Amino acid sequence: MKSTLNIITLFILFSCKTSKVNMELTKINTKVEHFQNGNVKNVVNTDSLSGLRIGFWNEFYENGQLKESGNYKLDSYKQCCVTGLCYEFYSYKFGEWIYYHQNGKTKAKGTYKIGKKNRDTSCENGAEINFGFVTVKWKFYDEENNERHPNARDVTEIEKSSYITEWDLIKK
Predict the structure, then answer these.
(1) Per-residue DSSP letters for 37-54?
(2) Parallel, antiparallel, or unpaired: how do β-strands 53-60 and 139-141 relate?
(3) Which are the contacts of 108, defined by CB distance < 8 A and separation ≥ 6?
(4) Is 123 helix (H, G, I), strand (E, B) or coil?
(5) Percent helix / strand / coil, the chain, rounded to 5
(6) Are 134 and 110 in contact (CB under 8 A)?
(7) At 160, is the secondary structure helix, strand, or coil?
């Protein structure tokens, strides 16, 4: 009995590696959220099970101007849970995205380069997830629509919003 328990324990410990899951979505919901002033806050497609973003996304400033526009994909990675392995789902930005200043002028635009990024998880060594990186091909503009060179903060601001997890939705 003791050796069986040890074997099961070792199996659980060493089988906690990240892997990809091919996901078939059963249903996509389109939601429109509004600010208190009645202006549209965002128009988003979400997965009906997780509530995560998938497909086309438009987010607006409270003044009604478009803030950002692009597409999300849904993916997952393994977590080591109390009951064994479990999956956590996340959405990541891909393809072309456009960001705007509050005055409606373009702030930044480009195509995300999808690569891998390590995310801390309850599993040893974390998990590798798909992540959208900003490349040198991205264009950045000031509020008068003059092209400018991005600083590290500009790039970090865009990349930090590159993905969202189920837990991020709960925290909101």
Answers:
(1) TS-EEEEEEEETTT--EE
(2) unpaired
(3) 98, 99, 138, 139, 140, 141, 150, 154, 158
(4) coil
(5) 15, 50, 35
(6) yes
(7) helix
Q: How far is CA 65 from CA 5, 30, 58, 71, 122, in A?
A: 60, 20, 11, 18, 40
Per-residue pLDDT of the chain (172 residues; tens, 9 = 90+): 555 444 444 344 444 443 344 445 457 889 999 999 999 999 999 988 888 999 999 999 999 999 999 999 999 998 888 888 888 999 999 999 999 999 999 999 999 999 999 999 888 899 999 999 999 999 999 999 999 999 999 999 999 999 998 888 777 6
Query: Residue 67 corresponds to which amino acid?
Result: K
- CA 20 to each of CA 24, 114, 129: distance values in angstroms, whole numbers, following the listed order: 13, 15, 9
Structure tokens at 124: 């040893």
Nearest 5°: the CA angle 24, 29, 32 is 150
Find tokens 């919901």 and name the residue: 29
